[in-house]
Queue: 4 jobs
Job 1
Amino acid sequence: MTELVEPAAAQRWCDRCGEPADTGAHAACQAARELEPPRYCTHCRRRMKVQVVPTGWSAVCVEHGESRG
Amino acid sequence: MPEILDQARTQVLDNGVGLDEAGVLAVLNLPDEHLPAALQLAHEVRMRWCGPEVEVEGIVSLKTGGCPEDCHFCSQSGLFTSPVRSVWLDIPALVEAAKQTAATGATEFCIVAAVRGPDARLMKQMREGVAAIKAEVDIQVAASLGMLTKEQVDELVEMGVHRYNHNLETCRSYFPNVVTTHSWEERWETLKMVRESGMEVCCGGILGLGESVEQRAEFAAQLAELDPHEVPLNFLNPRPGTPLGDRPVVEGKDALRAIAAFRLAMPRTILRYAGGREITLGDLGTRDGLLGGINAVIVGNYLTTLGRPATDDLKLLDDLKMPMKALSATL
Ligand code: SF4
Ligand SMILES: [Zn+2]
Ligand SMILES: [Zn+2]
């Protein structure tokens, strides 16, 4: 992860469905994420460039950098 | 014992002749109490005609997303509001993925691209990528790049790609409900050219697209007619934003019935567990399938979704005393 400019803005959006993280139900999203990489940046809701490889994944937000799993 | 299983014991197990469409349908319609017997027979058929080895493969997406086709199950189509964005894998990362796959003991590495068919840029990336893998990694390279021209088939052979995957996805009668931007027959054309080139043919599909049980049987019969070297069996993992995003997943027992039935239709093929097994069957399903006709697995992650850790599958093979196919056996 790159360093965040505004840490307070963390986790505003669900990384699976891209909807606000604090409203609606994301339990199903969380469960699905066990077998899926993230798709939306949690800080800005941009769709990320995601590359899955046999042993992991990387997701890049143009604004907030790369995360890996 | 249901009559169809008695018939299959003689016809398939003893004589190596696969069940026809009616026979497959009878297996798909077996009541739950006969499912264990069907799986046991399918396992015996696999042991007799293929042996105990399991072929292990890793796959990677060379070009993800932005596909112009409209396969209704696919999160990589650019025509749906799927969150999957277009991205290319560079060659060092491709070689690294092949190395990681080889490190599991896998003998197959399949390079996949989300395209209708390759363009010059993709063929160039393939040429460089396959050469780089062959220079550094001991593994067989397969490819899945959509529909091919004859020239492209020849080029892939020249690169040393030994197997080509092109799924028919579903039976001929149901295909137009799933894909409208190209036809089943166009896919068949590519498969024919691949076969004629000497590359091994890998062709399977996805169950749970809304096809009827009869159409599942039709699909097995059509695959048997094609007689592919390998059949990857996927179960729909409904993807957000795709037209099939709200479909239910295949019931575990129906998935196992299909595994047994496809094995009884194709006694000698490499029948591979591909995507969706974790969702449809959970952790136990992998064991049930390997004891019910499956003799190949994709380990690790898929193209846009994640799988169980490769180590879990390898430990299971060890527990089941099923050796991984060695590279020397495939050359
Ligand atoms: S051709 Fe392949 S990548 Fe493209 S939409 Fe169909 S399944 Fe997806
Ligand atoms: Zn969500
Ligand atoms: Zn962002």
Note: The longest strand of chain A covers residues 56-61.
Job 2
Amino acid sequence: MESTMYGAIQALPSEPVSDLLSIGVCPFCILRFFGIRDVVYSYPFLPSTLVECTTINLSKEPCNKKEQESFGHSNEQALDGRTCNNVSVNFDMSNPCIACLGIFQLEPGIDRQLDRICHERRERMAVTSKEKIIESVKKEGYQFDTFTVEISIPGIVMVRERAVWQHLQEKHGSQSRLQGKHLSEHVVSSKEALKGALIKSLEESLQAVHDSGSTFKIALRYKHPETVCELGFPGCSLKRKRGVMNEVNGDFTEPVESLVAIQRCLASISAKDFASIYPYPPPKCAVACNLDVSCYRTATLIGGRYLKFSRNISQSPWMIEEERKGDGSVQEIIADVVFPHFKADSYKFHASGREDIDVRMLGGGRPFMMEIVNARVLVSPDDIQKIEDSVNSLKEGWVKVRNLQLVGADARSSMLEGETEKQKQYTAVIWLSRCISNDEINDFMALKDLQIQQKTPVRVLHRRSPLVRPRMIHWLKLDRIEGTEHYYLLHLCSQAGTYIKEFVHGDLGRTYPNVGSLLKCEAEILQLDVTDIAMDLFNE
Amino acid sequence: MGETDSLNEKENGAPPHLSELQANTLYPSASDLPPEPPRAVLSNYDRFFVIDFMKGGHDQYIYRHNNGLCVIGLAPSHIAVDNDASVIAVDFNVGKRSRTEMKASGKRKSDACVLEPTSALCKVVCNNAEYIIRCCVRGALLEVNERLVKDPTLLNTKAASEGYIAIMMPRPADWNKASASFLTAAEYLKRKPPRQ
Ligand SMILES: [Zn+2]
């Protein structure tokens, strides 16, 4: 691999390379401008190799010496140099690279190994990005076996890249390596090169594998005080207030929209128009980019089904005028056990529909999901089983969970779909104003897929839209309660969204037909349980 | 077909997925059940009455749900129903616009019409007389009971439930103002004991 890299560098045209070095473009950016890809960027001796190869190449081409000299003159004082057979390559590293504004000079390989070129820069950079990343990961105590890196580059770096490219094209455009090439296709983006420079060594240091689909994200945000908003590129005249100004250190974070806008603008602007807005080659700048590292984990989703055996526990915390209603909530009882395991920032609780506080949730339970935000801990299926066991061994025992599991994002949509399509089964204790004959019971139970019209119940009409909803009662079953004349157990299966209490007592006849109208008597409901939610979700 | 199979299965005996323990808790013992059940109309609403509202014998009820909505209807002693004759018709075409056209929509019902306590809700027609039923409280009219148009005798048989006239949504201040003069259910029964 080293020899391929050496070959690639050796094959670079020495004139433009030595020109770029002399105006202050870093060795990494030079390789980018020549479209060199892959792991080259992680090679620690890259800068010195580039300078050496260029020096040797130049000494072999005495006819070009004149031109080369003219590059060197202007920057005499600030220059360091290398000489071979009286040919010298000048490189200016007293300021950050004029293209990347030091982004690549923050990288570890250079600073460690190449004291000659990067000595001064290393002095100035307190911590390299790799050290910063490791520190950030360790500080928060994240557990992970894979990771992915997200990079954001300030807009000004894109502008400067364009300026260097314009300089290259104007001065060296006839070079076969550059002729007829376009910036967007030819130049390796700083993001790609940075990943090439970092990922392998990060994998080693973090003892984890890079995987672009990983839930653990390391966000590298390079920032620079010089913003593009005020430069006046057409279509990019975003006002400063749209960015976020950090009062403490004066950092300016560009809004994502402005980065997209500048990228679009740079792709279409002519060389002439560009030159009227920004000089090329770009001017030196004493201030390097600043790196912010932050880590986060995308939502950890766990799903399962819950059962509720209490008639005084609501699904979600229920407060009326700061006063708690009932004996807590399903959400809190489950989350109080689950959430601490993940050492996360916050969580959201979603369930497929809900039952009233005084309705028990029995049978196979109701599908629910917890979305755990920024978990530090990576839990295994074994851990999930233990968490389920600890919910189920709570002393009160009002809430149990089944089939707790780690799930993917697709479970969220299946849960939403199920909410409108699923069938639900209920058992209710009801009272009828007269004793019903066995024949009547049989007629009642023969009703299949009975359509009812349900007006928004009075009890929720103050906060829901007044509508008439057609709903389906798929089947009904009526059992006498032994030892009583008027009490019955009603089992039924209905379409999602049916208000069962209203189907029994009729809600002033606003749900019609209803149990009373079907049996030609008055009907009242004493208690209700959900006994099954027919959904193919978290069933095992 | 799998679906039909499971349907049949569910019809025989207890629903599936229920453990023995759960199935037992579904079935209450007779001794746990009250002789008289709680009535939805009684337990969900506070019941109020007005006697002789604007005219003798014009007795109405105002059932207030604990969410603040009010169901308006004819008290058992209202002159239109306090006899053996049947109500012939209920006509919501009173006032400038028919009350059936006053639809409220949306969670906030911002398009609902706000009516005054004395605004007419409907006209109840009997053999030889007509009676205007009024709101009794200022508030947004959420709905009128259109079933009464087809089946006016609901007023004779079930005036306190399916024969309700309308549902209103008063603001708390308007409710407090109006309810000051209302009778409680106990006070009403004292003044108008049920006919033998
Ligand atoms: Zn650079």
Note: Residues A 25-26, 28-29, 97, 99-100, 104 surround zinc ion (CB under 6 Å).
Job 3
Amino acid sequence: MSAQDTHGSASAEVAARVERRWATIAVIIIVVMAGLAAFAGIHRATMPQPRVETIDPSRIHLSGEFVESNLGSVLEASGAVTVRAIGQQYSFTPACILVPADTPITLRATSADVVHGILIQGTNVNTMLVPGYISEQLMRFTRTGDYLMPCQEFCSFGHEGMWGKVKVIDKTEFANRAKGGGRLSCVGQ
Amino acid sequence: MLVNRKLILAHFWLAFAVFGIALTLGAWQMFIRSPIGTWLSNPELYYRSLTAHGTVMGYVFPTLVAMGFGYAISESALQQRLVGVRWAWAGFWLIVIGSVMAVIPIALGRASVLYTFYPPLIGNVFYYLGVVLVVVGSWIWVALMSINLRVWRKANPGAPVPLAMFANVAGSYLWAWTAVGAALELLLQIIPVAAGLKATIDAGLARVFFSWTLHAIVYFWLMPTYIAYYTIVPRAIGGRVYSDSMARISFILFLVVAMPIGMHHTFADPQVGAGFKFIHSAFTALVALPTLLTVFTICASVEIAARVRGGRGMFGWIRALPWDNPMMLALAFSFVMLGFGGAGGLINMSYQLDASIHNTQWITGHFHLIFGGAIVIMYFAIAYDLWPHLTGRELIDVRLMRTQLWLWFIGMIVTTFPWHWVGILGMPRRMAYFDFGDPAIAPQALSVTLSAIGGFVLLASGIMFIVILARGMRAPQTDAGPYRFALAVHEPKTVPVALNTHALWVALMIGLTLTNYGYPILNLALSSGTSVPAVYVGAQ
Ligand code: HEM
Ligand SMILES: [Cu+2]
Ligand SMILES: [Cu+2]
């Protein structure tokens, strides 16, 4: 006894039909998945950063957007907040990022040396920091409190110690603190 | 007709020896960073181990398995002595030399850059040169597979190429081309810097080059497993391949769509714009197609075996399967892990969902489940199936084989399920230490402990595997007969040229890579001011 008895043109036809049906289902699954991703990207604005921005990491301490005095959170005239940060072996500056709840926030960050990553636990904020390039990510927190912010890419022997923090505070409290101008952070609090 | 058995055995033994070492390192890593491990006073040791584990498991082990299996397929499917045996040995020794060359700087802590390299972190130049030698050794294999097929074609003009060889050669071409990305990165960017000829490097461009390799390399790892699904499993369990042409189409699809999608590994990167990320993510959806087709064809082939054995009913046939056959068991475990792993993969490939798990322990959990689980368990099955034909001795201990497969399956589930979970909680990967005393991290302690326990189950299973093969070298002699591959329900008498040759598909693979990678690479390579100073590991 062998599979001989499944031979014959009738069974071949059945086989071809079943196979075609399955192939059609497979193609539909794939088209639907790709469509969903495109829809979510456009409709919910969860798209990767659109533009590539470059920066010279050997000069970021000296001038430009990422000089030390410009790092931290700033309340823009529009009511939105911009956070600027850098990663270096093995810490983030600022090590504690202060932001308001329920506010559109733009995170702009880069690396001063090797590849790092920023991940804010409990959220989907997650981006690589590649030296030479600026990463930009939009975020919005609905819950106040403290979040851990580890570096998520190996950056040499101290990688396991590279943990930052994000402190989300009430919107009005943030506005009060921002009154004096300057760059806010929660380092040392 | 397996003539060059020594050559094939040498590849398999070296593969499983380095696998055993790397597996031990893996279990140690899992333990030492878990709450039951004691704090490692020197975290640097963890990264040495991680570099060795990743380099061996990612590059050396699967390459050797693919090569040894490829030589076995060439001789037994084509029924033709291997042409170029000396070259094959040269390739083998290049891999030996390359591995030793890479491992010395790793052991000395001079190359703790992990297997993904990621400049501007730069390690000792001999580490990279060693990896290059391993790849060059494997390219000799690619050339030999192609030459052997050509020799056979000359002798059998117009005949259908046996499915196993058709797939094997497709896999070798995929590997040859996907390795080019990392080769360009190493030769043009990293090695000049590691050798001290240059001091700066474009880290963004390097990540794009590496993504060229990083995706399709997983299909290279997968090839021996898929070849076993189609051409060994049905024969071993007494069935037939449901459809020879569907099998060919699946392998062709892997060849064409595995390549132009690697930039899904740069979803969270700043050096690639949204447009190319979208294109690559759309193409990524396509790569699910050959796997869906395979699942169907293999399930149908297995059902044929069951019905031949008298199985009946809509699902009743499942009971009629030869469950005491290790091949059947391995296939079932492999499919279960492929199912869970594939579901996880759908999450990784969507930009929106990926954001919450990118570079977390979810990713390490995911690829251990798919690669270490679904793929490697079939490497075990391939070895068990081939061994008597290579050694001329019987593998008697079928019970031990079943236990070993069960343990690998259970170990993998226990290890990787909690591993995924802590990833969802946001636990970052590649860290030597976690402060489980921190209240924010404490909830992850239990899961990490479970994973560590699973790791030891895997280690035990791995040791059993090696013991079974070693004992097989001393078992009583038998004549296992010629090594055969599964027949199709309808054995093809003629096959359309498109399903019998690779040229068209290789051209498509290269063309799609150039359209999907050409512009981003040129754009990054030509833009000035993005090169950054190298940071040498271990130089402090
Ligand atoms: C005893 C079983 C195993 C255990 C416990 C284990 C454990 C680990 C651990 C802890 C890591 C590092 C994760 C991190 O720090 O982020 C790792 C990485 C890795 N493992 Fe395993 N592993 C095992 C088996 C395997 C197998 C069978 C394979 C594949 C054949 C494999 C391939 C890899 C690869 C490619 C990496 C990536 C290294 C890197 O990220 O640089 N492992 N493994
Ligand atoms: Cu890091
Ligand atoms: Cu990929």
Note: The domain at 5-536 of chain B is CATH 1.20.210.10 (Cytochrome C Oxidase; Chain A).
Job 4
Amino acid sequence: MNSKNPIMLEIKGLHVSVEGKEILKGVDLVVGTGEVHAIMGPNGSGKSTLANVIAGREGYEVTAGSIRYQGQDLLPLSPEERAQEGIFMAFQYPVEIPGVNNTYFLKAAVNAQRRHRGESELDAMDFMQLIRAKLDVVHMSEDLLSRSVNEGFSGGEKKRNEIFQMAVLEPKFAVLDETDSGLDIDALKIVAEGINSLRAEDRSMLVITHYQRLLDYIIPDRVHVLSDGRIAESGDRDLALRLEKEGYAWLREGPTEAAQ
Amino acid sequence: MSNFSGQLAAAFERAAPALPGHANPALSARRRAALDAFMQTGLPGPRDERWKYTSVRALERREFSLAARGEADPVTADAEKSLALGQLDPWRLTFVNGRFAPQLSVLDDLPEGVVLESLGVFLDGHADRLDELPDQGFAGPSDAFALLNTAFMHDGHVLVLPDNVRLERPVHVVYLGMPRDVSLMSHLRNIVQLGENCEATIIEHWLGAGRENEHDNLTNTVGLSLLGKGAKLTHLRLQQDSAHGVLVDRHDVIQQEASSYTAHTFDFGGKLVRHDLNTRFEAPGARCELNGLYVLDGRQHVDNHTRIDHASPDCTSKEQYKGVLNDRAHGVFDGLVLVQPGADGTDAHQSNANLLLSGDAEVDTKPQLEIYADEVRCSHGASVGQLDEDALFYLRCRGLDESAARGLLMRGFGMEMIDRVDSPELRQVLEGMLDQRLAVFGENRP
Ligand SMILES: Nc1ncnc2c1ncn2[C@@H]1O[C@H](COP(=O)(O)OP(=O)(O)O)[C@@H](O)[C@H]1O
Ligand SMILES: [Mg+2]
């Protein structure tokens, strides 16, 4: 379980309730620096809950356990502090924000993070240069920049916009929540290539997916299966291939038995 | 007779001999008749359904000096700078505390046949054209402020375009308030007449330069726009009155066949504001679009009444007003869409959306559809809500702190209305005004 690389994120015995209902029932997970881990699992198993707890969403009550990020307790931090410290979540359902121009929003985000790091704010020119260079990462068309955030974007455009934002913000730890869902095969390849191009020695990723097909393009270091609020099984990418073949049904009989 | 009425009667006797057009007996009689009619009714009270949520009773306890003709009050360099509208190079009429200020106005190079001048000049020079000065509007009984306006109107603007003229530059009409040691009352009357196939943009701008002004000023603007066949008018209404400003504004629009009227009303300032915007389709195939945004905090009170009269078939109206309210601000939206018998083929859509950011802020919204025709497509709706929590979380996840995230969402809410303005130069000006407004939003205003 322990990683050979320095630890980026360490989750221990995490229990999380939403509206009084326990969703995560003791999650343990260690992600080393530079590693890409995949989280798979059936619908409703708690994948998005895990992503939201890492991002700091209100209403997700941690009743037991801990999350440490780069050696520090993550839980007391607000969502914006986490973002400023280098945590990024690509939303399963990116939010449409009418009237807020995509470029204006990104500039505010980049400069908020730069201020936090004690760097000078980028002016309009430098900023445009930065984001133009990042459009290629997910082959995003430039006219999306002048539109309102995600408003009227197709499903695929929204997902691309998430990865584009990740490319611009250059986080240290990224949680990608079902970034592959709703993409056709061509868009999936483009998005996967974009994500691969953002893999780096000092950046870790948690790639959440319901289907293993994304993992044909993004080869994970580890694969974990989340089932009913617990990590039921961990392994290398062969685990993903087995899930593809056998589905999630065997999880209910118990992983050890099924593995024999 | 209330103290207020007595004051007005005395003010009228003093002012009448010098009011523009005073040499014309018919006009003088009309003024006096309007004053008499006002004396019968007085200011509207809470039992008047149209003034249910907006009380003007406090005016009765004020002493007002009438802004008469004569030299305009001095204007500071800062105030003069605030007249500029970004990159735009408009024709301009500036009224300082209700008085026309030629030195702050730009009226050169007008196209052939175009009349653009102050009402004072117009009435003095063309008393014979009095018939072109329409009296109170058409929407129901004349209201008290329109009567007062007829009695006292001492200035305003007149724009007359002969057929087939397209104005390349916008017309910027500024009602600039400079601080004075008394409470001032001004009554401005505006007339716009577009001939067939004309095109023009008018920017009416209520601008209070003196936030430190401790006196309540009453500005009473009444306007009428007549749109000829195929004419197109874009009408921006920027309200940045001072924190002590009381504004009562009424504008009536009469539209001929296939004409188009677009209004964008932005209420950023003022203490007590009432707008009445009434449009009427006199002939088929016309359209109007009424957009509005109010951003209110402190104890600001802004009331937008609109009335769209589909008196002819095959006309289209689109109306959307949006408001952001903080502190103890109070917003009122009352919009009537009236589809008259025979107005088949009407297409009318109306909505009012509000963000309430404080438990003490209040909004009264009343969208109304009255339909007396068949074969119509109509919709209306109103909403009152808070900032979208999902959107707030999304922004915070990208590193914006909570107050920046809230600010960005409010800005977005307002930008949606600014984005509806066609001219990019104007959009830029408006964007600056919105940012300026939001920069001090929710900071305890009186
Ligand atoms: N905000 C919420 N309110 C109530 N229930 C929730 C909320 N978020 C998630 N849940 C519940 O938690 C469980 C796990 O959901 P989720 O984490 O979204 O699963 P997954 O992403 O694996 O499909 C589901 O039963 C879902 O109904
Ligand atoms: Mg999910």
Note: Confidence is low (pLDDT under 50) at residues 255-260 of chain A.
